[in-house]
Amino acid sequence: MAMSQSPGAAAPTQSGTEPSVLRKIVAASMAGTIVEWYDFFLYATASALVFSKVLLPEMGNVYDAIIAAFVTYAIGFLARPLGGIVFGHIGDRLGRKHTLQLTIMLIGVATVLMGCLPTYQQIGVAAPILLVVLRFVQGLALGGEWGGAVLLVAEHAPAARRATWAAWPQAAVPVGNLLATLVLTLMANVLSDEAFMAWGWRVAFWLSAVVVLVGYWIRRTVSEAPVFEAARAEQAHDKAMGFGIVEVLKKRPVGVLKGMGLRFAENIMYYLVVTFSIVYLTEDQGMERGPLLTLIAIAHASHFVVILLVGRLADGAGRKPVYLAGALLGATWGFWAFPLLDTKVDGLILLALIAGLAIHALMYASQPAIMSEMFPTRMRYSGISISYQVTSIFAGSLAPLLATQWLKDTGSWLYTAIYLGVAGLITAGVVLTLRETKGTALEELDAIDAAQTRASERDEVTTA
Question: Which are the contacts of 284, defined by CB distance < 8 A and separation ≥ 6?
Answer without folding.
Answer: 407, 411
